[in-house]
Amino acid sequence: xxxxxxxxxxxxxxxxxxxxxxxxxxxxxxxxxxxxxxxxxxxxxxxxxxxxxxxxxxxxxxxxxxxxxxxxxxxxxxxxxxxxxxxxxxxxxxxxxxxxxxxxxxxxxxxxxxxxxxxxxxxxxxxxxxxxxxxxxxxxxxxxxxxxxxxxxxxxxxxxxxxxxxxxxxxxxxxxxxxxxxxxxxxxxxxxxxxxxxxxxxxxxxxxxxxxxxxxxxxxxxxxxxxxxxxxxxxxxxxxxxxxxxxxxxxxxxxxxxxxxxxxxxxxxxxxxxxxxxxxxxxxxxxxxxxxxxxxxxxxxxxxxxxxxx
Amino acid sequence: xxxxxxxxxxxxxxxxxxxxxxxxxxxxxxxxxxxxxxxxxxxxxxxxxxxxxxxxxxxxxxxxxxxxxxxxxxxxxxxxxxxxxxxxxxxxxxxxxxxxxxxxxxxxxxxxxxxxxxxxxxxxxxxxxxxxxxxxxxxxxxxxxxxxx
Lengths: 310, 149
Description:
Chain A is mainly alpha-helical. Chain A contains 16 helices and 1 strand.
């Protein structure tokens, strides 16, 4: 009844006053009704509305509404106080958030400051390095050292051209190749020199070979023939290339006369070297041909091809 | 308080990063010095070895050793050319085949593995040629061969 009586006076003054304003007020009242603390306030305020309803004038009604609001607020001190505290607490969060953001900005500023300080520390470190690297020193000691390095580099390049496997870039490996090649060349020269020393014995070697003419000629492998062909061709063109080729193959150039002498010297005593003696048998025949050629007799030269043909 | 603590942590992290950078730089420098020292020692040893082969009584600085090596290699090439010339000159013109023209055996030369050649080069040439001069008497040759071996 009380609630219905309250509703009716609100509806009655609406035609008297402006309808939209009253509608807005009604909406506001509805929102207030929807809030939780309102029912408790309604229960507490049950006797005052009846006394207010006695004067039916609109003006009084407005005053009554305002009075109700004013009275409601102090009556519900606890609830509005809680609401206010809640509002402050909720408000404090955004207040703290900007404080937090302020802190972040401070940390960022500190980060930038430290970055700038780091940059400042880095700059003096890089500056002397740049100077040391880029600057062309002009003192005589530095110039002399530079010339020495350039001279060594030029000579190292020249040696690379003379040495097989000259494509290595490591200085230590390059020197190893040079050392091995020099040793190989020394060995080659010594072997050829030994044959020169034995030149006087060519006649005796011919005699021994004539006695050994009955030996069968063993055919060498095609690969060996190709290697010999390549070496002979290179020796005609460039001795340096031929020597590099031989070192790469692990072979050494030796006169057949020297090889024959070595095989005959070792043949009678050591049987394990029979296999080795078998290898230079074919050189015997070629040596015979060459010996005939060395005889400087045209007739013998003609005989040599006839012998080789069959 | 929480934000101030976070700021402190950030500062500590940055300091750690800086220290790591410094340690890495130090390691890099130490590696360079170590490797450069090793390289210098290796190169120095090889230069000494090359000098012993090329010019035992010559100058010892790197540039001089390299120059002597160049000259010595060219000299050895010339030596091989001169020593092999007698064999190369005896080219049989009668044969027209290119393969035979470039064959070593027609010229009195053959290829021997370096392993078998080292022993020959180390020995005295006279010992090898001596037995050939006395093939007439087998008994004498046998007796003569025994003292050489």
